[in-house]
Amino acid sequence: MTKIDKRMVQTICTVCGGNLANFPKRIRVAVLVAAALLATASGCGKSDSGNEATLVPEVTVTTVRKGSIVQNLTVSGNLTALPNRDAKIAALVPGRIQRVLVTEGDSVHPGQLVAQVDPVSLRDQLVQADAAVSQARANVENARIAAERNEGLLQRGIAARKEVEDAKTQLSVNQAQLKQAEAARSAARTQVNRSELRAPFAGTVVHRFLGVGEQVDGSSGQPVVEIADIRTLELLGTVPASRLSEVQKGARFSFQTSAVSGESFAAQVIDVLPAVDPATDNGTVRVRIDNAKHLLKLGMFLTIDLVLKQTSTSLVVPKQAVYPDEAGEPHVYKVTGDEAEFIPVQLGIQTKDQAQVVSGVEEGNVIILSGGYGLPEKTKVRTKP
Fold first, then answer.
1. 320 and 362 housed in the same domain
2. Same domain, 90 and 209
3. Cα–Cα distance, 9 to 140 (Å, whole number)
4. Is 72:307 a contact under the CB 8 Å cutoff?
5. The total number of structural domains that make up the chain
6. Are residues 236 and 298 in the same domain?
7. CB-based contact 204:294 (threshold 8 Å)
8. Are 23 and 9 within one domain?
């Protein structure tokens, strides 16, 4: 027998006024049966009480509060210079690079000399062109004098008309040769100028491809340096086509990036490109970023959050506290005392962690945060401390 049974037997014996062994056998059996029934009744009562306690679900709660909420769209892409503000400078004449005057990171101003191809042979060609112009100009002058002399002789009846016409023809030929020589000299001067590589705009040297002594063929396929204006950069961000309509052209925002810790950058949505890639069903958004300190680098890969919607004074609850019903409509469990009730709510802006509640609850209402799945519409709950 258990300790409880023995105590019950002893109690009955005391009530009966003596030791159980002194009683007849049938009385002893009756006493033992009564003790067993009492023990069973006591155990059942305790079990029912425990079951009743376990049937009440335990939940965690939170409070509906007012606050700000921002809906973002994450976009990623590489940083590029603004259109027409990134140039690879190549020599337009063949030859050997005589000097390169800049290196990566140098700032340049418009028209600054950054490199030069050996101009010796080009300058010789210019000298030859100058001489050809001088000769052609002398020939024109001589032909003009001859034509005027023959015209005078014709008027006095000394020269024949054919001689006059031949002199005029020779003057025209020499004048044409002069123009040709002047054009050749202009081309030779242009070639000399092309041996000098100059910055087309103010910017920063971001790449140096060739050095002194290397040969170039005079084509754009052999750039010597690359210059870009990196004071303002653009991010060409990839966005799913289904969300392009949410992006607001002209929207301004600021962001931070792990690539440059402790710095905040001002940005603006410039445009949404009109074409969508049919292979990925993604579109492109142009985001212009202020980079006055040159902390962001050309070609850097960034992931930033575009602000789509935001509000500063609205009811906000954790996203975890919103439970859908069988139709998928959002609800919350409003807790009053130890009672929880399934309340329909209307949601506004939603983020990964929070949701704006437009209607259904009020500020200060207590709602279930976790433990609400599977609960009936009205039920008793026990909140965790």
1. yes
2. yes
3. 150
4. yes
5. 5
6. yes
7. yes
8. yes
Distance, in Å, from the CA atom of 183 to the CA atom of 133, rounded to the nearest integer, reads 9
Q: Taking each helix axis as running N to C, give the angle between helix 3-16 and helix 25-54, from 0 to 180 degrees, rounded to the nearest 10.
A: 130
Domain shared by 39 and 135, yes or no:
no
Residue 162 has which token pair?
Answer: 């054919």
Residue type at 308? L
The residue written with tokens 């001067």 in the block is: 189
Residue bearing tokens 């590029």: 80
Of 305, 328, 348, the residue that ends a domain is 305
Q: pTM (2 decimals)?
A: 0.63
Residue 37 in tokens: 């029934």
Q: Which helix (H) or strand (E) holds 89?
A: strand 86-90
Q: Please tell me whether residues 128 and 181 are part of one structural domain.
A: yes
Structural domain that includes position 135: 119-194
Pick the last residue of a domain from 305, 336, 363: 305
Query: What separation, in Å, do the N-terminal and C-terminal C-alpha atoms of the chain show?
Result: 41
Query: 241 and 153: one domain?
Result: no
Q: How far apart are CA 357 and CA 347, in angstroms?
A: 5
Q: Note down pLDDT in tens along the chain; length 385 residues.
A: 444 444 444 444 444 444 555 555 555 545 555 555 544 444 444 444 445 455 888 999 999 999 888 888 889 999 999 999 999 999 999 999 999 999 999 999 999 999 999 999 999 999 999 999 999 999 888 888 877 777 767 676 676 777 777 778 888 888 999 999 999 999 999 999 999 999 999 999 999 999 999 999 999 899 999 999 999 999 999 999 998 988 988 989 899 998 898 899 999 999 999 999 999 999 999 999 999 999 999 999 999 988 888 887 889 999 999 999 989 999 999 999 999 999 999 998 888 889 999 999 999 999 999 998 989 899 999 888 7
- DSSP label of 277: B
Q: Are residues 102 and 208 in the same domain?
A: yes
What is the domain-level CATH number for residue 353? 2.40.420.20
Q: How distant, in Å, are the alpha carbons of 38, 62, 333, 341 from that of 318?
A: 52, 8, 13, 18
| DSSP single-letter state for residue 68 | E
Distance (Å, rounded) from C-alpha 335 to C-alpha 120? 91
